[in-house]
Amino acid sequence: GRRRGGRDEGSQIVVKYPDPPNVDAIPLTSSEEEMPMYFKDPQQLLNFFIALEEQNLFLIQNSQETEQALEDLKTSYRETKTNMEEKTSVLQQNITQLESQIESEEAKKAQLAKRIAKSAGTTQEKQELLLMSLGEKVKDVYQRCGFDASSNPTTLFMLSDLEAQLEDLLSALEQMPDDYVKKAEKEKEKKRREIKRIEQQKILEQKQIEKNKAAIERALQPPPKRVGRQVMYRSQQTRRQVKKEEKEITEEELDELKHFT
Asked: Cα(191)–Cα(183) distance, rounded to whole angstroms?
């Protein structure tokens, strides 16, 4: 027979009731004959209703648990939504600040680009002048070292020759006696200091000459003309001091004063 419900892990009641009759297999009879009953025992009907009641209670319990789980999910969703909105607000503020900083940096970048564009030509000219000055100094050293610069060699070529000669001189220096090298170094250092002292003295003398010349020019210049009305200061009135003359008292007048007193 069929099994409807039942008391198992889900707290349901298993009720056995007979299979429904097969109407097609029952032979046709007169209307006065009674059809067979579906339930054979009254207890079967009672058990069936009990099973339905248990099933309803089970479904109600499941529905309540589902509603509680749904309420928990809603609460968790609201909390998560609030938390995410707060984080989103903070992130949005950070994005706004970063965008503002980016705009500020872009403005600085544009200003620097303008300055670079303005000073590009001047900087290039300065670099060219500096390279020319360095080339002249290298050429001067090149000629002092005994090389011929009549063919106008490049700066790199002159530097390579000077480097090679320096290496030769260092190799020769290593073969010389230490005492001789130290003595020569002292003499060279003494000459270098003397030359430096003379150069500094010349610089000081030139500065003094320039100062004297500027002082003479200032002295020869006419005094500046005063423009506008001159400020007149109020003179202070002199106060006459009256000196009181002290009269000397003679002895006779003193005797008379004593007599009257």
From this structure: 12
pLDDT tens for each residue of the chain, 261 residues long: 334 444 444 445 455 555 666 656 666 555 556 666 777 788 888 888 888 899 899 999 999 999 999 999 999 999 999 999 999 999 999 999 999 999 999 999 988 888 877 766 666 777 888 888 888 888 888 888 888 888 888 888 889 888 988 888 888 878 888 888 888 888 889 999 999 999 999 999 999 999 998 889 888 887 777 766 666 666 666 665 555 555 555 666 666 666 555
Cα–Cα distance between 210 and 218 in angstroms, integer? Answer: 12
d(CA 19, CA 201): 134
Query: CB–CB of 16/43 below 8 Å?
Result: no
CA distance 174 to 163: 17
141 near 162, Cβ under 8 Å?
yes
Assign 50 to helix, strand or coil. Answer: helix
CA–CA distance, 26 with 182 (Å, rounded to integer): 141
**Whether the Cβ atoms of residue 73 and residue 66 lie closer than 8 Å to each other:** no
